[in-house]
Amino acid sequence: MDTDPPLALALHRVPFAAMTIQPQSTGTPPATLAAPAFIHLKVHSAYSLLEGALPIPTIAKLSEKHGFPAVALTDSGNLFGALEFSDKLAGAGIQPICGCTVAIDFGDAPQSGASIAGGPARAGANEPQSRPAGAIALVAMNERGYEHLMKLSRALYFDVGETETPHVKAGRLEELGDGLIALTGGPDGPIDRALRDGQRELAVARLKSLEKIFGNRLYVEIQRHGLPHERATEPQLVALAYERELPVVATNECYFATPDDYEAHDALLCIAEGRYVVEDDRRRVSREHYFKSADEMAALFRDLPEALANTVEIARRCAFRPRGRKPILPSFVGEGGATPEDRFAAEAAELKRQAEDGLAQRLAVTPLADNFTRQDYEQRLAFEVEIITRMKFPGYFLIVADFIKWSKANGVPVGPGRGSGAGSLVAWALTITDLDPLRFGLLFERFLNPERVSMPDFDIDFCQEKRDRVIHYVQQKYGADRVAQIITHGKLQARAVLRDVGRVLQLPYGQV
Known about the structure:
- The chain has helices spanning 56-65, 82-91, 143-158, 170-175, 190-196, 200-214, 228-243, 262-273, 294-300, 305-317, 343-365, 374-390, 394-409, 425-429, 467-478, 494-504, and strands at residues 19-21, 31-33, 70-76, 95-105, 134-140, 168-169, 180-183, 218-223, 248-251.
- By secondary structure, the chain is an alpha/beta fold.
- The strands form two sheets. Strands 3, 4, 5, 6, 7, 8 and 9 form a seven-stranded mixed β-sheet that branches. It has a two-stranded antiparallel sheet with strand order 1-2.
- α7 (228-243) links the parallel β8 (218-223) and β9 (248-251).
- Mean pLDDT is 88; it is low at 1-33 and 112-127.
């Protein structure tokens, strides 16, 4: 049996359990606040790309408006919004519960050499190609669960073929199931899909697989959006849950804020799929997929009170939220792959040595800037090295110089350097940049300033066709767990929205 972590109560005026408020003056009877009737566990933010239409600040406002003490974010196939969600909701006095909707392959669906999307199969470790059975929702109970959720989020994309739908194998889920609560996924889940296809034995087998992984952390999910297939499978789902002594939980898949947003969200789905609003054979959701209040959900599930109560139970069992932290810089790996015991002193000495040697090499082939002497260069270099050392960034400079030197030595074109980093003479001496800052009057203080401590930032341009080689080199030398790639999320700005909505509505461009 799992031991639940202590209840993580956010600073909210409505706590989970009923409590007594002390009277403010003599003679005032104590007031009792009732426990919440329902907690949202299936909210999709705008980070469910081209699917969700709820910006995270909107989720915080809606949660506060409806008096929810906790809300779970379960975006489709990613954790892009987890940190922003955690900060925004905690700031509003609401407990954030971080989760993810994950497609699962149980290995029981037909397989073929072609991808689900119809593209060619990729030769490699994942042949024959997998066919996910459906998606389940996973929420993190504790820090270990969140770590596992991050690994599963990565596996969705890196452990599958290039043309496959992002998913994880059931075996991978078994390895990383600890610390996670699982919901069976509703109409798009593997259990519902099997029941809808008349394959009850398959549904039971999948449920047993999930039971084996999650034990008493598995909940059978019931949704009521007024859709025919939900009504058709609900009696079988409830019967299965009672038969296997599993708890049921009520959820509402939230994609937009109010029923009035339905048409706009429907246009968003058309934009995502390149379809037209008038087409019938395309993905649709119902007008009920909005952020309902607890009272609306209580009325909707009044015949299944335990399904409502279990949403609160799940919120009680979750006691972790991700928090931002300062960057943790890796150690510079010197010759022979060794990391010295006194890391900082060794990095500072190595930076000084490489910078002085590099400056000597630069000045041997480059004329001095007008009105500057060699001594001016050496004094500027000593000043910068002292500042970099004092701010504890020598390792950062050495690592950046390392992979740039490797790139130049291995035929990977590198740009001359952009941004404020070009103001550093140390960067020029280490060949990170190719601009002499004294010649062009560039200030080092724009790059690093002891009075305004912030991470240094070099803007480096690599050849697009060969930059993967640089990333591979850094992963091999410093460890793949120390190398990450960033993503930029594009937004549908006003002009793009008008153009795309006009297209899905089939309006003439001139009219748009």
